[in-house]
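dumping these here so i dont lose them again. two proteins, back to back, each one seq then structure tokens. dont judge the mess
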Amino acid sequence: MDFNNPQSRFFRLSASVPLWKLGLEKQCPVPNLIAELHDGNGSDELRFIELLGDLGAEAAPALPILRKFLSVDKLISLRRTTANTICKISAEEAARLNLPGVLAMP
């Protein structure tokens, strides 16, 4: 498997989330997910953001980069997913940002 291929990286990271939650994976996937978002792989950004939401409060270190995806120059679907992910990670941060607000609407 070519782990430099974006699809392979997503497959590996999406598998690491439940494995880590079950205690079968030693390394928390949050740093790798943050790195993927920093790399700007636009086609998978939404899916990586959803994975952070699946981790809940453990993904708190990702909040600074997630706030960038709320920018009005981003697609509404990306902003909505980001808003919902922030709500899953931190109720306090979501309240501070007034989320999900209108971003939760279809």
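---- next one ----
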Amino acid sequence: MKDKSKLTKLLHLVTATIESLDEDQIDQLASGKAKLTFASIARASEPSGVLPADYVEIREQLNQCKDREGARFVLSAMATRDALAAFARTLKVHVVKHDRREDIEAKIIEFVIGGKLRTEAIRSLNLKGSAARSTGQ
């Protein structure tokens, strides 16, 4: 029974991998021009949930920013695209390998600053004022 469970899990993984391919990649696999390979995934050396001190500091600086330009200045301090992508992942911002540095910055800024601005806009809505006018007519 245990081996059957492993086989089922393995088939699900293979199916998910194939479903994530685009049409060209599937055609290449079917024609024998490409192959699937096995690659072991190394575990991160840091325990999950623990952020490097730099990330905590950058997150605090971003939370203090009032506008997108200030956030862009804070993010410009990050040296590489890979460091920026790793930081985005700690914020649970979706980043793909084809994203340029500017795209990653935009996603982070929209997540942090845009979310803050939307929250402030919602809190500033005067719902009581519009209801009073509609009942008074």
